Amino acid sequence: MKQQTNSPRPLELLIHVIGWGILFGFPLFFMNREGSNTMHWMEYFRHSMVPLCLIVIFYSNYLFLIPHYLFREQMRKFLIINLILIAAISLGLHFWQQMTLPPFPLPRMHEMGEFRPKRFFPSNWTFFTRDLISLILTVGLSATIRMSYRWTEAETARREAEKSKAEAELKNLKNQLNPHFLLNTLNNIYALITFSPEKAQQAVQDLSKLLRYVLYDNNQTYVPLEKETEFIRNYIELMRIRLSDDVKVETNISTLAHTNTMIAPLLFISLIENAF
To answer: What angle do CA 156, 150, 88 make, to 5 degrees?
Structure first.
């Protein structure tokens, strides 16, 4: 059984890098003011604190909280830890922004002899509420992505289990058919030796061809339809030896010339055996 790990796959890692790169690159569009070419790195660092807090919330849930609590049906612990984490990060981010907040330029009350109203600046709690909602949405996004990957892995494991089960059932069926087929044929040849040694020798030769098909071609997942029909014809001819002259066997097996159809080996042999 393959052990699942929390290490990201290359494609998943690339998606994460691109997503966070876009988020961290977004403040670069607002670094220059009034056409200045000066890079305001302190302002960029201040704006980057919000994406950095989102990363902490996202990967705390993605790598630890969701696998250890949500997936183990410990919803209460999962919510409590997230509430404490979100509250702590939100308050810390809020107070840090207040300490590093640059002073706003004084609004110009008169310009060109005309009175201009004061500029409106959102309150600090507006930004606090915005950041708080962003952190909550990040938890939901992390849970959605993590659960979608888990569902994909579970679906892949289910399909592999169904495939393995089908292969095991087919292998078991083959193991049941081969001894049954061989014993019937040997009994027929044994009965034939007493009254027709020549036919018994021909039957042994025919049996060797059948065994070659059963032991070697039968190991493949699919075989050409033409080979399977040839095997059935040889099997019918071999089974004729157990019939008396009063019994008439008619067969009509036809396939398209040069057909490329592939089927599972020994698919029809049980029907032929039961018929005989």
So the answer is: 170
Select from 274, 160, 169, 269 the least CA-distant residue to 217. 269
Give the number of other Cβ atoms within 10 Å of residue 213's Cβ. 19
Digit-coded pLDDT (tens) for 45-87: 767 788 888 889 998 998 899 999 988 889 999 999 999 999 8
Cα distance between residue 98 and residue 223, in whole Å: 75
